Amino acid sequence: MTRHADADTRRAQIADALMSTVAERGLARTALADVAATAGVSVGLVQRYFRTKGDLLRFGVEWIYGQVRERVRQVEITLPVRGIVVRIMETFLPLDDEREKELKVWLSFLQASLTDPEMAATHKAASRDLHDGLVEALSGAQRAGELADGIDVAGEAAALIAFVDGLSLHHVVTGAGYAADELRTALVRYVDRLFDGEAASR
């Protein structure tokens, strides 16, 4: 890293250090000095971009959502819609070491959002965007005849998000009990049941 690195590069460097530090130590035990040490820079340099720990943490949660949005943008949009839904929701699952670390940090930030209005607003906006996107996809599936007309797409979108969040949480807690291949299998089975019409009878 050169002395004259641009601001975006520095922020990315600090964000990566923040992710690693919070994943290892948790939010409560993470200080600016820890992040600076992990990034290999001075505390003064970190404070040049983030005046307080709160500023840094709020940037961190926005960084995570930015990473997820980028993965969603890279999803191949090819029919059938069922496959699109699976591929989009897969981007939220901890299917590799980097995403597992991201999930641990996200869970820490989620807890912090209970008392931090700015973090809460970021989380709510991201959740709303995901829900709206799924509603649009499921509505498109209904128009294409892939999904039964009687299905409540808004309710099913919310349920699918909760299911994926639950899979991710249990993976973090139980480890091998929810391995990557099992996470994928569970997601596909859930979406298959939805598209095969079982949701319409509930």
Q: What does this protein structure show overall?
A:
Residues 31-50 bind DNA. Helix 1 (7-25) packs across helix 6, helix 2 (32-39) packs across helix 3 (43-49) and helix 7 packs across helix 8 (153-174). This protein folds into two domains: 1-51, Homeodomain-like (Arc Repressor Mutant, subunit A); 58-201, Tetracycline Repressor, domain 2 (Orthogonal Bundle). The radius of gyration is 19 Å and the shape is elongated. Helix content is 72%, strand content 0%. With 202 residues, it is mostly helical. The chain has helices at 7-25, 32-39, 43-49, 53-73, 81-90, 97-112, 117-143, 153-174, 180-195.
* Discrete helix count: 9
Structural class by helix and strand composition: mainly alpha
Order of helices and strands: HHHHHHHHH
Q: What coarse outline follows from CA principal-axis ratios?
A: elongated
- Mean pLDDT equals 87
Give the terminus-to-terminus CA distance.
56 Å
| Helix share bin | over 70%
Ranges where pLDDT stays below 50 over 5 or more residues in a row are none
Level-1 CATH class name of the largest domain: Mainly Alpha
| Total discrete domains | 2
Organism: Streptomyces caelestis
Protein name: AcrR family transcriptional regulator
DNA-binding region: 31-50
Domain HTH tetR-type: 8-68
